[in-house]
Automatic annotation (TrEMBL):
NAD listed as a keyword: yes
Family: Belongs to the FAD-dependent urate hydroxylase family.
The name this protein goes by in its record: FAD-dependent urate hydroxylase
InterPro entries: FAD-bd, FAD-dep_Monooxygenase_BioMet, FAD/NAD-bd_sf, HpxO
Record key words, sorted: FAD, Flavoprotein, Monooxygenase, NAD, Oxidoreductase, Purine metabolism
Cofactor (UniProt): FAD
GO BP annotation list: purine nucleobase metabolic process; urate catabolic process
Single GO term (MF): urate oxidase activity
Organism: Marinomonas profundimaris
Reactions catalysed: urate + NADH + O2 + H(+) = 5-hydroxyisourate + NAD(+) + H2O
Pathway: Purine metabolism; urate degradation
């Protein structure tokens, strides 16, 4: 049995690992000739780390995961602590730690684990066809590949999605712009073992430790879509958006390198129920493109892969296994997309009264409520 895996991102590589465990041959096709991930880093929460362990790649998390032991929110203007607490109770309750990681390093190490020579790069998918016997992939370079099934992990702008669900989807602008990158750890910005977030005015500045003595940082600002900004104005733009914010925020802005900082308009896609059509399945962002507001984008792709492998462990009938995968995942991923959307709106001031109420709650928070929310999301995964 052979699967065509479209995409060599986190979803595609974890899919290949999961199917390999079930004795299924995989051919992996990646559109770009050279991997250049969008986004400097990402949060792999405990459910995602468990998936990496299950897939045989836990050592990658051990080497890349930063020492994120505590969590704190600060008032963005005054810098005052709103809440600060240990994540140990969360780790103890779910049995695994969270791992903020470099996105580029994670993808690179997953590719190296599989074997870079076993991935076909520069293969941009143009169209797909399927019949009772298998699937055919047509690429823009004129090449063709055939297999018994296809797993489309080809991202938020998926070519395969319309074939599976029967209609074109529209990306929805979430209402804010995100700048993200990496800087050397500096405790004038934040403690080296803590996820630190400054909030105010519907804006957010967040700092997480990753391996290699680096902070992953991101700035969120509610803005209209389509503003003309570029790297030459990046620092001055951020200084304007965060004028009069606390000193650690100013230290961070002065430390960033505009040439390695990403600026992204954040989008998601309305959830849909159809993840499978006959021998073709959607996985990762192609199936559930979400905002990053609850840190579950990469985790949910890893979960998809684990569940897919579990389904093929029960049956080698392709249609049956893929339908089981769809049934097990469609409600979970819809819930994550909508949770992220709700958190996005509150965090970024869609209704400033609700956002202010959240700020007031943070000042009373001892950690129990936030940990309970994180716990519920994590244990909803397939390896709870």
């Amino acid at each position: 049995m052979k699967a065509l895996v479209i995409g060599a991102g986190i979803g595609g590589m974890s899919t290949a690992a999961a199917l390999k465990q079930q004795g299924i041959e995989c051919e992996i096709f990646e559109a770009v000739k050279e991997i250049k991930p969008v986004g400097a880093a990402l949060s792999i929460w405990s459910n995602g780390v468990k998936c990496m362990n299950h897939l045989g790649m836990g050592h990658i998390m051990d080497s890349l995961g930063g020492p994120m032991h505590n969590l704190a929110y600060h008032d963005g203007i005054s810098g005052a602590v709103m809440t600060q607490f240990s994540l140990r109770p969360l780790v103890e309750s779910v049995g695994e730690r969270p791992c903020p990681v470099s996105r580029a390093d994670l993808q690179s190490q997953m590719i190296d684990w599989w074997g870079r020579e076993n991935i076909q790069f520069g293969k941009r998918l143009e169209k797909v066809e399927q019949d009772d016997h298998g699937v055919t992939a047509y690429f823009t370079d004129g090449s063709v590949a055939t297999g018994d099934m296809m797993i489309a992990a080809d991202g938020a702008r998926s070519v395969v999605r319309e074939h599976v669900i029967g209609f074109q989807t529209e990306r929805r602008y979430a209402g804010y712009v995100n700048w993200n990158g990496l800087v050397e750890i500096n405790e004038d910005i934040a403690p080296a073992d803590q996820w630190t977030t400054f909030v105010g005015e519907g804006k957010r500045v967040s700092i997480m430790p990753i391996a290699g003595g680096r902070f992953y940082f991101f700035f969120d600002v509610p803005l209209p879509t389509g503003l003309e900004e570029d790297r030459t104005t990046l620092v001055s733009d951020l200084k304007g958006y965060f004028k009069d914010w606390a000193k650690p925020v100013q230290v961070l802005i002065n430390a960033i390198n505009p040439d390695t900082t990403n600026r992204i308009e954040i989008h998601d896609i309305d959830p849909f129920d159809t993840l499978v059509k006959d021998r073709i399945a959607l996985l990762g962002d192609s199936a559930h493109s979400t905002t990053p507001d609850i840190g579950q984008g990469g985790c949910s792709a890893l979960e998809d892969a684990v569940v897919l492998g579990q389904c093929f462990a029960k049956t080698k009938n392709i249609q049956s296994a893929l339908k089981q995968y769809e049934e097990k995942r469609r409600f979970r991923v819809k819930d994550l997309v909508l949770k992220a959307r709700k958190r996005c709106d509150v965090t970024h001031g869609k209704n400033m009264q609700e956002t202010q109420a959240w700020y007031d709650e943070l000042r009373q928070e001892k950690g129990d409520n936030i940990i309970a929310g994180l716990h519920n999301t994590i244990v909803g995964g397939p390896l709870a």
